[in-house]
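Entry:
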Amino acid sequence: MPEFLQDLMSGNGFMPHGHCYLWLPSLVWLHVLSDALIALAYTSIPFTLVYIVRKRRDVPFHWMFLCFGVFIIACGATHVMEIWTLWTPTYWLSGAIKAITAAASLPTAILLIKLVPHALAIPTPSQLASAHRELQRAHDELERRVHERTAELTRKNQELAGEIAERKRAQDALAIAEREREAEQALRTAKAAAEAAYAELESFSYSVAHDLRAPLRAMSGYSATLLEDYHDALDADARDRLDRIIAAAVRMSDIIDALLALARISRTEPRRELVDLAQLAHQVVEQLRAGDPGRAVDFLAAGDLVVQGDPDLLPLLLDNLLGNAWKFTGNQPAARIELGREQASGATIYYIRDNGAGFDMALADKLFAP
C-alpha cells in the first residue's frame, strides 16, 4: 500500500476523540446520536433531490440540485467520520473527507450566487396565477361547449347505462352468494375437522390417563401395604418417605383428573362455580411441603380470594404456577411466595409473586409457544 494511503488510514500517534469527552457515556452518546441523525438526514436529502430531478425534468436549474446533493452527502460523510474518530483516530482520513466537502461546497456556493439573477427572472406566483386564470376561463368555455354537445348523447346513454348497472348488480349479488356458500362449506369442513381432532385428543387423553393410573395405583398400593404390614419395623423417616410417596401419587392422580377435565373443554363448556383460591393454594403448598420437607418457604395468601371458575381446572393452574415458584426459589435462603390481587385499569388482577430467579421479558412472547 502506498505510504500516503497508510498515513491516511493510520491513527498512530493520535488519541481517539473520545478522550476529549473523558469517555463520559452521556456526552459520548450525545455526540454519536446527534452526528448519526445528522448524517442520516444529510444522506437522505441528496436522494430526495435526485428523485425530484428525475420526476420533474421541467424543473429549471436541475443541475443545481445535483450540486447540492454532492455537497450535502459530503457533509454527511464528515459527520460519520466524527463518530468514527471517537474510537479510531484516523484524523488524516477525516481531514481528507472535509477537504472533499470543501471542494464540493465552494463551487456550489459560487454557482448559487451566479444563479440568483436567473432565479429572480422566474415568473412570480401572481403572474402564474393570472396566466392560470386565463387558461381556466378558456377551459371553462370549451367545457361548456362540449357539455352542450354531449348532453344529448348522455341522455341517450342513460337508459343503456341503467340496464348495464342492473346487470352488474345482479352479477355482484350472484358472486357474493357463491362466496358465502363456499365460506359456509369451508366453515363446515373446518368444524368437522376440529371436532374430529378434539375427539381424537380426548380419546388419547383417556388412553394416556389409563396407562398412567396403573403404575400410580401400584405405587400407592404397595406403599400403603408397606406402611400397614411393616409399620413397626420401619423407622419414622422411612414411614415419612412412604407417606410422601402416597401423597405424590394422590397429587399425580389429581393432575391427571385435571388434564382430563382440560381435554373435555373441547366438548363441553367450563363450569363456573365459586372457588376459594387461597384455600386451593394452601392445599397445593402443603403438597409441595410434603414432597420437599427440607425446604423453608414463607407462603402468604390474601384473604377473600373467592372467584368464579372451573373447580377442576383452577387447581391445575395453581399447581403449575405454585410449582414453578417453589422450584425457582430453591436457591433463596429466605424463599417467599405470595398470592394476592390488585386493581389495574378497572379490572381485578390475581397474581402469584416470588423472589426466585427472574424471567427475561424479552422472551415473554415465547412463554406459551409449543
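Residues 3-122 form one domain.
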